[in-house]
Amino acid sequence: MFRKDRMFPRFALYGFLKNLRFFEPFLILIFREVGLSFTLIGTLYAIRDTMTYLLEVPTGVLTDAFGRRKAMLMAFGSYLVSFAVFYWGHGFGWFALAMVLFAVGEAFRSGTHKALILEYLKLNRMEHLKVSYYGRTRSASQFGSAINALIAAALAFYTGSYRIMFLAAAVPYVLDFINLASYPSELDGELTRLRWDTIGGQVRRTLRDFRAMFSDRLVLRAILNSASFMALFKATKDYLQPILKQSALALPVFLAYSGQQRSAVVVGVVYFFIYLSTSYASHNSDRFSRGFSNLAHAINRSYLLGVGLLALAGAATWFGWMGLAIVAYLGFYVLHNLRRPMNVAYISDQIESRVMASGLSVESVVRTLLASGLALTLGVLADHLGVGPALAVLSILIAVLFPLLKVE
């Protein structure tokens, strides 16, 4: 039976504060406001994703050597510097630097806090509670995402500026830095001697695992199916923002306020309901999958439905049907959160448990490479065709490749 203890509120507080990235629902609008083309925006996204992956191995070595708490503090320190560069910097070069600094934070943070929680449960003989314990801390993160959207909207509405959100995001991140610094030292885990030569060994093992996974057709399909959909989602999800902005400007409400203020209200409210919906979707993924004859069937149908919804969002934007575009995008977000638990379960069925971690690491590599390429492609298409046609064309291209991605 689940029980709260002295660390649970601090673990939950971490997740809540970590998701108060006020700029996220407005990131593309911020970049467009300073004059960046969609191609340059896609390049920035590719820089962030690629650097995060490239830094995962060296940051993993540092985490093992210095401890998990210190790794988390380094992550949040890098985040804070990136926020400052985003706020005070001007031009593509400064934003590229900020993306690299953000990637450093992502690489240090990725998976580390989960390890802190699991170490705490192990030390306190509470490992039997890990599903319910971690699930409840994650719910605090999801709640933080929903609240984040409302606070971000209020900031943009009352200040008339999008970029102020980078400065505002520093406040919860400083508080989370203090929270993490107060974690007990025993959660650092067993420290290892820092040896940079181990990086080469880790890279070689990753490449070996990569080759092994791709020699099995079923494993290959499972990984490509999951990674390609997640990459498509990651590359396209923020393009809801210009759609919402265009929709807000067309609404005959708040006419006494500026276009930016009206956009802020619509973006904040829509994202608030999106995160509430995706939280519910993740919780009910198992129930959704049981509605199909088998897991593979659920994965394939949901893949095609998700690509279809994105294509519909693009086509609706193209023809100016903004309400339909927003509803279709909401469905795309929900379907992404329904699919992820199913994909992890399917991959685990195809790969032996002893190499499960390697399998998910290979999936992460493929997802990163695909997301970088799709982000660049979408940016170029959006500049030449417009956001709606770009989304529709990219969705059709992915649908054409589906026979190669179908699981059995």
Textual characterization of the structure:
The chain has 408 residues and is mostly helical. It folds into two domains: 1-195, Growth Hormone, Chain: A, CATH 1.20.1250.20; 201-408, MFS general substrate transporter like domains (Growth Hormone, Chain: A). Helices cover 80% and strands 0% of the residues. It contains 18 helices and no strands. Helix 10 crosses helix 16. The radius of gyration is 21 Å and the shape is globular. The chain starts with 7 loop residues before the first helix and ends with a helix. Mean pLDDT is 81; it is low at 353-357.
Question: Short summary of the structure?
Answer:
The chain is mainly alpha-helical. Helices cover 80% and strands 0% of the residues.
Present the secondary structure layout.
Elements: H1 8-18, H2 27-33, H3 38-66, H4 68-88, H5 92-109, H6 112-123, H7 130-159, H8 164-181, H9 197-213, H10 217-236, H11 240-250, H12 259-283, H13 285-289, H14 295-318, H15 322-350, H16 356-385, H17 387-400, H18 402-405
Helix pairs in contact: 1-7, 1-8, 3-4, 3-5, 3-16, 4-5, 4-6, 4-8, 7-12, 9-16, 10-15, 10-16, 11-12, 11-15, 12-15, 14-15, 14-17, 16-17
